[in-house]
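User: Please run a holo structure prediction.
Assistant: Happy to. Please share the sequence and the ligand.
User: Here you go; the ligand is AHM.
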Amino acid sequence: MSASLPSIDETVDSIFGTVAYTATEIRQGLIGRRVPVDEENPSGETQLEADVWADQLLRKRLSSIDGVVQYASEEEDDCHDCGSLEPGLAVAVDPLDGSSNLKSNNVMGTIVGVYDEPLPARGDAIVAAAYVLYGPITTMMVATDDGVTEYELSGGERTVVREDVRLPAEPVVYGVGGRTPDWPADVEGYVREIEDELKLRYGGAMIGDVNQVLTYGGLFAYPTLESAPEGKLRLQFEGNPIGYIVEQAGGRSSDGEQSLLAVEPTDVHQRTPVYVGNESYVDRLESHLS
Ligand code: AHM
Ligand code: MG
């Protein structure tokens, strides 16, 4: 008898169940892995032992799930084909988002985007996305077309702490990456305007900053820079999954002109400016940039 094809929902459940129990292991395995290895990732950034190790662990586990046919990681040049149960799902993973925070022992995350098209794909091919936040407590935010749920992770167990997560209507916080003198004038003009209205929260790990936006409302941005006109963050691994999660929570995402989910990809590792948060703040940002 031939193997039966798991449904999309079953595959997504397996992916997030695997991420949940692996995250606990990743958290514990960070000890002793804070040192750089003699390698750069495809974006030209120095890798830490933890980046490489977390990627290997996630690749091994996620690529062996029935229904997963492609694994791509911010830490590896090439996408891996895996499994033969076509049509299947592709996973794009940032194993340790914000890993430069490991040196100072600040928050980090793991990001997983699940696409129903081969990578690179537009963000509107995402069927589900999640991130893990390694904070004082390990939490996981999971978004599907049914909405967004926040869990606390303990061992392999997921406990729901917030159902139907929505961005609060009254925004409170903002965080913008890059050095101020490196911001284009229109970005700086916008930030000067909103710093009168919102409280600055910038922690150097997108997941930590975005989680604050999902908790308090507001805006997270990693804009174009004079020195980096494409921005810093990667579309497939960071922009699209976070754009999907924020949009499912009732907010907006943008690359400065349009939803991140509408950006046509040209390369798995391409960068993009990222603006996510309450609709009113992203709309205003776009009008400043146009
Ligand atoms: P990483 O995934 O290689 O760690 O890089 C992404 C991180 C984001 O989490 C964060 O928003 C940004 O880089 C911080 O950059 P900066 O150090 O310029 O503030
Ligand atoms: Mg990252």
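The chain is about 30% helix and 30% strand.
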